[in-house]
Design brief:
By secondary structure, the protein is of the alpha+beta class. The protein has 2 domains: 3-176, q2cbj1_9rhob like domain (Jelly Rolls), CATH 2.60.120.620; 181-222. The protein has helices spanning 11-22, 35-40, 51-65, 68-74, 181-201, 206-222; strands at residues 3-5, 27-28, 41-42, 44-45, 76-79, 83-88, 92-96, 101-104, 107-110, 113-118, 125-127, 130-134, 137-141, 148-152, 157-159, 162-176. A hairpin with a 2-residue loop joins strand 12 (130-134) and strand 13 (137-141). Bound molecules: nickel (II) ion. The site of nickel (II) ion (NI) has 3 residues, from loops.
């Protein structure tokens, strides 16, 4: 499932990120790339251990923890500390799949979900679409600043060359309690249906209760915690 989550950050939070990142020393983005993707990667990143990465990352993680769409669609078990990248004119990232396993300090985890949180106004640059491939073809994603795209980390993806301006973003991964994208999608759709139905007939309605039980029992069957 490719999911657009709107307004993860407020306009104030986006400008706080941009102000803080403006003063950082950006380095070659190949520092966090795997062997194959390093060859395709041409961008800049803020070093993973820079204090600003941790400070802004904590703000993003706080916002995500309160975001019902992220929680319901991602069923996150742990979220990798957010990183920050930038593509200036002429930069791009060719087709690749993200590493399956990542380390955050001593913690090793599986990347089930990839996230890109846009920090630039789309009017400020041309090109720079995140292009994600799935069974239905290619999807070009370019979102307002503060919005995020969540997609399965199993997907082949790339960032189209920037032809004007600069595109800033935060990117990170999450390990989900439910490894399978297919199962997560079913749970997300079921959860949304239950929420919508509850608004119509009330949470205490016997069918809502029965569907909620089914949701929980499917989650119990599929979740690894
Ligand atoms: Ni990637």
């Amino acid at each position: 499932m490719l999911l657009h989550i709107e307004r993860v950050l407020t306009a104030e939070q986006v400008s706080r990120c941009r102000q803080a990142l403006q003063q950082e020393a950006w380095v070659d983005g190949r520092v966090t790339a795997g062997e194959q993707s390093a060859r395709a990667k041409n961008n800049l990143q803020v070093p993973q251990d820079a204090p600003v990465s941790r400070e802004l990352g904590d703000m993003i993680l706080g916002a995500l923890g309160r975001n019902p769409a992220f929680v319901s669609a991602g069923l996150p078990l742990r979220v990798f500390p957010p990183l920050f990248n930038r593509y200036d004119t002429g930069m791009e990232f060719g087709a690749h799949v993200d590493n399956a396993i990542r380390f955050a300090g001593p913690v090793r985890f599986r990347t089930d979900l990839s996230c890109t949180l846009f920090l630039s106004d789309p009017a400020d640059y041309d090109g720079g679409e995140l292009i994600v491939e799935d069974a239905y073809g290619e999807h070009a994603v370019k979102l307002p600043a503060g919005d995020m795209i969540l997609y399965p980390a199993t997907s082949l993806h790339r960032v189209a060359p920037i032809t004007r301006g600069s595109r800033w973003a935060s990117f990170f991964w999450a390990q989900s309690m439910v490894k399978s994208d297919e199962q997560r999608t079913l749970l997300y759709n079921l959860d949304n249906t239950i929420q919508a139905l509850s608004l119509k007939v009330g949470q205490g309605d016997p069918e809502v209760v029965a569907l909620t039980a089914t949701y929980n029992n499917l989650l119990r069957m599929w979740a690894e915690v």
